[in-house]
Amino acid sequence: MNFLQGNISARFKVIYGIFFLLIISSTVWLSYLSSKGSLEDQVRSTNVALLNLIQQKIEMMLREIDTNTINFIQEPDVSFFLHGRYANDDLRFNHFRVLNDRFKALMFANSNISSFYLYSLENKSLLTDTTFSDEADFYDMNWRDAFTSMTSYQKWLDTRKITEISSGLHLDKNVITLVRSYPLISIPQFRKGAIIVNVAENTVSNLIQNVDKQRAGQTLVINERGMIISSQDKKQLFQPVSSIEGAPRLEQLTDSGYLTQNTDNGSYTTFYLTSAYNGWKYVSIIPNPEMNRPLQIIRNLLLTIAVGMFLLAIVLVFAVSNYTFRPLELFFRSITEKKIGRPGDLTYMEKFFKQIISDNETLQKQMNESLPALKWRSIMSLMMGDKTNYSRMKPYFDMLGISLYDVRFVVLVIELDRIQDIATPRDVYLFTYAISNVAEELVAGVCKGVSVELTDGRVAVIMSFEEDDSQGNQIQALQVADLVKDYVEGHFKQTVTIGVGRPQLHLEGIHSSYQEALNALKYKLIMGDNSVVSIDDIAGNNHNDKFYRISGMSDSVVNYIRDTDKVKLEAQLDKIFGEIIASNVPPEMIKQMCIQLIMKSIKVISDKGLEIKEFLDPKENIYNRIESCANVDDIKSYISTFLHQLIVRTEEKRLSRGNNDTIKQVMEYMEQHYMDSDLSLNLLASQFQLSVPYLSKLFKETTETNFMDCLIQFRMEKSKELLLDPKRKVNAIAESVGYNSTQSFIRIFKKYTGQTPGEFRENHNKAPRG
């Protein structure tokens, strides 16, 4: 009883002070430890997101320039220059003036373009917005080797130094260069030239600065050899990335991720990712003290809160001891039969402990509610390749109720078909949730696994097998996919398409299997809805030959549109799409061929003088329209409708044209003066007192051809008549039909007839006479 007879108030204060000190310090420390990992992940995720944003902005700019280049290079005047088809100098200069205006329009439309020029392989000449020059005299030919060795249709060259000549001034610049071949899709031996577009390196580094200006460290763009091609510090250009303090070696920068390097001057973290568009790597090198500054701030904040809470607890202990001293003394007096003064009660302490219990229940409830989100994040980390160590992930799996073996994984991606036909977004969400649960239950009957909802309408499933049988595991995955497909169709009255990746041995392979499943799912366009597509069904095929063969079939379609033959057009479309399905052509290639077919058809109709904008909806994006098609049949239906509309408009245009007396007079004049070598559109416009643009437009609208093609037709037909006389010499015939150069006459005659004048005469003489 000596303890009870002592100073109860002082003992109370000491005991409760120690108690609160232990509770607060342990709570704060555990809070810091539990949140440290997630905070570090958030810091890394933020840096990765910023690097992704930089890549997206730069590649968006580069793709926009590439798109503008594609549109520009398809202009008839550009094609005319690259083929070198100029009958005389006047025509050449007229085209140069037109091209100069096109150059200025393109550079005005896209301010990121520093300079560009056209290169004619046939004439070995170049044309810029300010000059025309032979290849041997041009100031910048460093891109020529890359163009010669280029096997693709376009290539972005690394940063290089050039000296531009503008208004007589020599300007040194660092530029990134796009080289695109002409025609757009052609193998090297059939190329006619190229367009070369230069983008100032400052444009790229400024984009990096705009995104990265509030972050410590530095962001670089490097090429596949590890050389720096864009940086805020221009002294770093053309230097290896290993020369930067804290940077890892090039061989360590594979795909995407981050690395930590320790140097004599400190520790650095490098975030990196590799572009699938041009192969460049985007690298951010950040000192760890700067990167971890938010963690230090939070740690200091928690310490401050702990100190404040402890001081508050001490104050409360003193206050509570004063209010509870009397009740405690009464309590002990009832035991010791001693009288102690002042009354009091324990009401405050009772409320305090009730609040602790209530807070604990609230915390437990919040923990249970957050488990689905934590589970989703952990599974996404596996599929994105962020988490690859099974032993480190195992405690998280156990906490979240995820059961997986440590090896042998296959990923399935399930996509709900025709989401747009489902009544409401809520219905889509409910179907997705139900499919995820069904898939997880069906997988549990075969092996271990887990499913997660990626987006509304799409579910990913990770299957983990005990047996070391890659082929058998793949077959089981396909069987589960069929079960899911049949269950959804039978019970939900909906259909799904399922992509199946390859089996992977270790946890880090989940990312690869997931990407393969997504790629397999793209073939839904060919396989159709309600199907299971394995990556093994589509991988390893070389589609180049199929692409060229099917693309060549589109020329017949263009001819049928020119001839307005709807029946043959439809038959040829059936043949083309039948070949596409039979050849298992990739979806991206199908869409590319269809866009090219539309572009060729529009060009043919434009050459006939039909204004496409008269019937095309300016709000309709043809590319997006094709992208939105769910399968090959939808694409074929859209292409067929579009091309039939072209034919209908062409027929309507022909009926509305009627006869034109002016063109009749012009044609009669040409028939009488075709042998004049100086006959040109300018001369005709002057003769009939018309403007050149108006006469050119009148020609197209009335004759469905242009002046030069019409003049060539007159001259070639007359040449064929003259060649029937064996006594006439070819050079004399050339002069008599308006050609001062025999070589030019022979070249044009062969392009027109497919034979040289000598071959034409010889074949005609061999032909039997009736």
TrEMBL record:
Entry keyword annotation includes Protein biosynthesis: no
InterPro entries linked: CdaR_GGDEF, Homeodomain-like_sf, HTH_AraC, HTH_AraC-typ_CS, Tscrpt_reg_AraC-type_HTH
The entry's keywords: DNA-binding, Membrane, Transcription, Transcription regulation, Transmembrane, Transmembrane helix
Domain HTH araC/xylS-type: 664-763
TM regions (residue ranges): 14-34, 301-325
Name this protein carries in UniProt: Helix-turn-helix domain-containing protein
Organism: Paenibacillus radicis
